[in-house]
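Researcher: Structure prediction, please.
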Amino acid sequence: MSHENSAQHSSHSATGRLTDDDVFLFNEGTQFQLYDKLGAHPLVHDGQQGTHFAVWAPNAEQVSVIGSFNDWDREAHRLHPRGDSGIWEGFIPESTKGALYKYHVHSRHAGYRVDKSDPLSFFNEIPPKSASIVWNLVYNWTDNEWLRTRGRANALTAPMAIYEMHVGSWKRIATEQNRSLSYRELAVPLAEYLQKTGFTHVEFLPLTDHPFFGSWGYQTTGYFAPTGNYGTPQDLMYLIDTLHTYGIGVLLDWVPSHFPTDEQGLGFFDGTHLYEHADPRQGFQLDWNTFIFNFGRNEVRSFLISSALFWLDKYHIDGLRMDAVASMLYLDYSRKEGEWIPNRHGGRENLEAITFLKRLNEEVYRHFPDVQTIAEESTAWPLVSRPTYLGGLGFGLKWDMGWMHDTLTYMQKDPINRKYHHNLTFRMLYAFHENFVLPLSHDEVVYGKGALLGKMPGDEWQRFANLRLLYGHMYSQAAKKLLFMGGEFGQPTEWSHDGQLEWSVLDLPLHQGVHRWVTDLNHTYRRESSLHEGDVDPSGIEWIDCQDTEASVISLMRKGRATDEIILVVCNFTPVPRPNYRIGAPRGGYWKELLNSDATIYGGHGWGNGGAIEATPVPLRTHSFAHLHVARSFRPLPQIFRLTVLIAAAQSHRSRPPIHSRPTVVFHIPPLPITIRGTIECDSLSLFHEIKKLQQTSCVFFQARVLLMYGNRKQVSFPRCQITPAYRSGLLGGHYEQTHHLVFRSVRIRSLLPTGPRSHPCLVQRTRTGRLE
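Model: Predicted structure follows.
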């Protein structure tokens, strides 16, 4: 067939997969199933087996498909423009599944010509080769039951213990040139391992196609194609299907912030800066030498949101963890003065990226309400994990990078100095501003940072004791959990993507102990509702004592929603034995020792409490009904207790503690200057005087109405008065608005009635607005 005849046939054989509505919505930025419209789709047209191709290149003079079916001839199969949409399309009967292809783009500008991989290909060659492959996504899924019920597994009240991993370096086959396991080889061993160790979810570092293996997938070129390093798209589907069969949720790292500059990729696609900004002050990321997406362009938003929905739709992914969100939010991210362009208001917020993230999350939850989106956002940007209708970005969860940094900094200090750095309680000042995940991620075990075990102070035994303590403290906090692979058994050296985990150390007793400790933590976290139902709810955690800095001991309670069981957690961060250490308990009876990191089965010395403790009725400052004498080991350890008396017996001891033992006001002030307005419900007219006591050094205002609870409902308005915030953190620019519903445990007031001091619960609704300088 001549070139001319081939091109003519291509024109007449266009399948019309793109309707006029599709084209309109794409140019408008609201077509979010582009994977069904653009790219290469094998099909039968007019009785001929072939492939329909479609690609967006609005500044091209001509686009043709080159490939193994036409000897890479740039003139053999030309595509044709779809009106003025910028889309080029055509049907080529010679191309079938498995054929290699690229788009040859001849630009209108300066005669620029380039061969590009398909931005919407489903499969690509293994790097350094870069051709796309004609492929389909046919697969017989068997995970219907998982999909039907996964909403419960992904709920904010459900346990979420995430195993973060890099597929290529989990295990390797040394006898076959140290190659990585394929998707299919990995499926059953990984599923069985995760099930045994108790993890609820696995989070894969990006599996989207990437040209440089050492980028771990964070420099993506194929936003609709899994990397071929481990197999075909169907092989990846088999891996995910198998994990679902074992009850394991699958999260995928996804990178909408930037992309690499490789010639075959998205950069300078049609001789212009199509996907990225033209000005390097907006379009080039200096830290990673990558291009930044132009989030203000309609077609780019369609492309990225379609990519997110693609993995949830075609691969049954259960959630997306979005990388480097902070770099998207700030125009001056990692830039010096003069290296960035302010927004239209003169600020540093990337308004186009903010709009994009909100729409992205809206579309994800509209189409897949039972999944989660997770933001890796390292700043104090407000409302990241709050709905867009409340002014938030709309993510379901956010990594708590501050906790990771602060806790590891604390744990690296010699225990003798920890009392001078007792900042483990700082997180509670912001713990419920977002729905948090506590990450001990891959970022902390690379680039010379060493393994988690290596960060711990002391000799070998002390390092393992500290590591167990770190994990116990992490699992006691109110948040979801994430641990990078190898951490579950105390990998001794820094992670390397070119090798496998040091599985051989599991033959050593101390590593076995860490592995068993993490396994027991996971299973306890999953089994005990008190440890997960309140992960994003202030009522799920309560300090017993957070002020024992001299002993470096903290104690707290975890509480569930639908159960009267309470779990007490005590952590000793020093190697000092503390026998008969007294803590307050909310109830009497016997308390069972649920977990003890100093148990010999975990590699400890065996200090404990004989399996149970009986609470005795001695008033304390913290909880006045009873106290526990807790035997403390001379090594750092957390101990977790659970009330095991019968529910009926527990209810019989639920008398209110004496008023002198209760705090005057339990008040969490947000870390920003705000205006608070709202309603307080209580039994007294004198609450105003209690609020006035908080007037010392304020930068916020309080205005309230008191609703009397005696007979007819009355209202009393208070004038404005000032109260003191607990702390102030780094401020962001711009405007924001947020509404909180917080329950204060109690407010100590003096009634006008002759009954003396009283203590009553109250509910406060707060709306915060402000201008942040």
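Model: Confidence is low (pLDDT under 50) at residues 1-16, 623-627, 631-636, 642-773.
Researcher: Thanks, that helps.
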